[in-house]
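In response to reviewer comment 3 from the previous cycle, which asked for concrete evidence that the modeling workflow produces usable outputs, we include below a single protein chain processed end to end. The sequence was submitted unchanged, and the resulting structure tokens are shown without manual editing.
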Amino acid sequence: MRLRRPISHPGVHAINVTPMIDVVMCLIVFFLIVGKLAADQRSQIRLPVSGTGVEEKAPEALVINAMPGGGEGGGGVRYVIEAQEIPAEALAGEVRERLARRPGMVVEVRASRELSYGGVGVVLSACRAAGVESVRLAAERGGGGR
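The workflow returned the following structure tokens.
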């Protein structure tokens, strides 16, 4: 009895998964980088606690972080916009420039709970001088909130 050899069809080939793995790895790297950039924009600030108010996120907001530790120009306060430290005297000009690129943008102020109101007042004065229409103050939700 003769043994039969399996007939290989010329149209059937093994599936190459290497391109799919390459695409998946590129997506993983992309999301890691985007996550890092988003974390850099939102600096680690201990926000004040509030038991009232609603959670609302503007679709497009300019986030200004105010945190302790700046030089004598800001009165011991550092001002950061998109991972770039801005001196207190240049804050109004920087906000005005960014608003010129995107008119009608809402400004969100994230200030550390360790700061006095004077540090936040500098940001609010700069926003007023830049012609900002809407300023939001960020806070953490307290235990007694809705």
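The two ends are 83 Å apart (CA to CA). We consider this sufficient to address the reviewer's concern, and the full set will be provided in the supplementary archive.
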